[in-house]
Amino acid sequence: MNIFQVSYKNLLRRRLRTMFTIIGIMLSAWVLVTLLGFNKGYENSLNENIENMGFQVVLTAKGCPYEAATLMLKGGTGLRYMPENMVKDVAGKPEIANAAPMLMHAVFDPNKGESGGTTVFLGVDPNTYPSMKPYLKFNNEKGAWFSDKAKEVVLGFEAAELEQREVGDLMMLPGSEDEYTVTGVLSRTGTQDDGMIFLPLKTAQSAFKKEGELTMLGMRLNQDVDASAFEEELYKLPDVQVVSMAQVKNTIMSLVSSAKVIVLSIAFIAFLIAMFGVLNTVLMSVFERYQEIGILKSMGALPKDIFKMILIETTLLCSIGGVLGILFSFLFSGISEMAIRYFLPFAPQGALIAIDTKTVIFSFISITAIGIIGGVYPSLRAANIRPLDSIRSE
Amino acid sequence: MELIQANNITKIYTRGSEKIHALNNASFSVNKGDIVCVIGQSGSGKTTLVNVLGCLDNPSSGSLTIDGKEVFKTGLSLSESELTHVRRRFFGYVFQKFFLIPTLTVKENILLPAVFQKKYKANEENLDPIMEMLDIAKRKEHLPSQLSGGEMQRVAIARALINNPSVLIADEPTGNLDSKRSGEIKDLIVNLNKEHGITVILVTHNTDLAKIGNRTLELTDGVLRQ
Ligand SMILES: Nc1ncnc2c1ncn2[C@@H]1O[C@H](COP(=O)(O)OP(=O)(O)OP(=O)(O)O)[C@@H](O)[C@H]1O
Ligand SMILES: [Mg+2]
């Protein structure tokens, strides 16, 4: 037999109390792991999302909405245009790895849906646009991008559902008698591309009577270009606005940072609750065993033996609770993620909670340490019980 | 040979402003192999005396020497840890209440004092002979709550013996037992003394039990008469 066994058996004495304490620690560990995982996961996903947008910098005419969602809200109005030849100069700059000119066109269709809806068309250059968005895949691996100037379209996943078209079908554009062949339907991406109807840039320009004009130029920069200096340079062009994804990310991160403060406060409170829970439980069990501990002392237990015994009990409580909490955070990360999505102003696609080994180890150690700190005072109290106190307390 | 030498031991308790002289200048000695019976009326200071002798309590003044080593003298009192080391080396205690740990089995309760010693293995070997001698071997996997009073007291005695103490201090060990069980405990103590040479200091109200002593200390209001 050893002290460890004595401690362990003591925890079994008040099973219910032991269980509740373990549950308390478990909940704290769960909250902690989930929140730390969120801290990591959110930023990772956001970066990935921004990466998926394909463009690092977007150039539009001043006042032009560059998001399809905004455009739809406005019922397809508000688009501005910039001359194609101005953009040619920009696209040739040495800083740029790839530049994709685009023409967006929105048509309000009163027969669409219940109260009408907006169809968004995007004229793109098949040589530049797909290579900027490598995550665009064709549904069921059937289909291909159209060729330059052809009367062909590629449908986003939702657009295809709405128009009820498949690869090889024909469709007409509003206000035109020409027929267009569907050459591909894209897989769902979760981005605004899902609702788009893509067509060749040149075709779009002539179909929508916008020859020589563009709404946007999406750009990817070369690896070691100073992005902010380059943006400054773009601003010198007349009547354009520059949207950089770095800015967008910063805006989102600052929105989220207030949520993070709340999240970390919750973690801190969970910590305190765990600590006082342990303190309370262990102190109570020390008081209950006043006599017993005194007898152990008369039998030759040193203060440090008793201290050790009580601290082992505490450590057992905390480590069991910690392990369970970590298991919980893995099991229920889906639910936690739903809750976080509900509360956050903006949540990117992908896993919001990324729990890695480092997080797990850090959480386990800190929860156990916090618990042990809670156990120090009761252990000291126990260590200082005198044998006489118990023998006399008859 | 003198094992314990007590000189002018005085113990004063203060209860509020009142001072209680529980022991008044008690001087005596205990030899190796003695059975010393401590008798006296309730409140006369018997428990106080054996607690001081057993190093469970500090005297207010006086000196105490155990096996040639001075553990107390006026103006000096040992720390809790130092006292523990003296207790470990010399004493095993049995009280009127059994103070068994309810979560541990009989075997584990008996082994408990050994857990706190450096030489656990050596002391563990005492377990079977002691349980045999006290006739509790059949009960070793039982919990205290499953035992009779007499059995519980025998377990407490076994626990006091596991580390081979030189002195067994028993404060009214039969106080909670009927006369038949008391008789068993009496025989046991005599046997421990005769066969194993254990020195016994025994506090008792029981006149029958008091007869086994080769020496008797009688206390009246804290004053000792040999
Ligand atoms: N911790 C204490 N504080 C104050 N007074 C005490 C304390 N312990 C004992 N006393 C007093 O000291 C005196 C001696 O007590 P002690 O317990 O030694 O007597 P006893 O002979 O063992 O009595 P009993 O036969 O009832 O056990 C009593 O008057 C008691 O009230
Ligand atoms: Mg007494």
What is the structure about, briefly put?
The complex is a heterodimer of chains A (394) and B (226). Chain A is of the alpha+beta class and 394 residues long.
List keywords for this structure.
heterodimer; A: 394 residues; alpha+beta; 2 domains; 10-stranded mixed sheet; two-stranded antiparallel ribbon; 14 helices; 54% helix; B: 226 residues; alpha/beta; Rossmann fold; 6-stranded mixed sheet; 4-stranded antiparallel sheet; 8 helices; globular; binds adenosine-5'-triphosphate; binds magnesium ion
Walk me through what this model shows:
The complex is a heterodimer of chains A (394) and B (226). Helices cover 54% and strands 17% of the residues of chain A. Chain A is an alpha+beta fold and 394 residues long. In chain A, the strands form two sheets. In chain A, strands 1, 3, 4, 5, 6, 7, 8, 9, 11 and 12 form a ten-stranded mixed beta sheet that branches. In chain A, strands 2-10 form a two-stranded antiparallel ribbon. In chain A, helix 1 (3-11) crosses helix 11 (303-331) and helix 2 runs antiparallel to helix 13 (357-383). Chain A is elongated, with a radius of gyration of 32 Å. With 226 residues, chain B is an alpha/beta fold. Chain B is built from eight helices and ten strands. In chain B, a hairpin with a 2-residue loop joins strand 1 and strand 2 (18-31). In chain B, the strands form two sheets. Chain B has a six-stranded mixed beta sheet with strand order 6-7-8-3-9-10, sandwiched between helices. Chain B has a four-stranded antiparallel beta sheet with strand order 2-1-4-5, covered by helices on one side. The A-B interface holds A 1-3, 5-6, 9-10, 12-13, 291-292, 295-303, 305, 384, 386-388, 390-391, 394 and B 47, 51, 56-57, 80-81, 84, 87-88, 93, 95-97, 99, 101-104, 108, 111-117, 120, 159, 163. The structure holds adenosine-5'-triphosphate (ATP) and magnesium ion. Magnesium ion (MG) binds at residues 46-47, 171 of chain B.
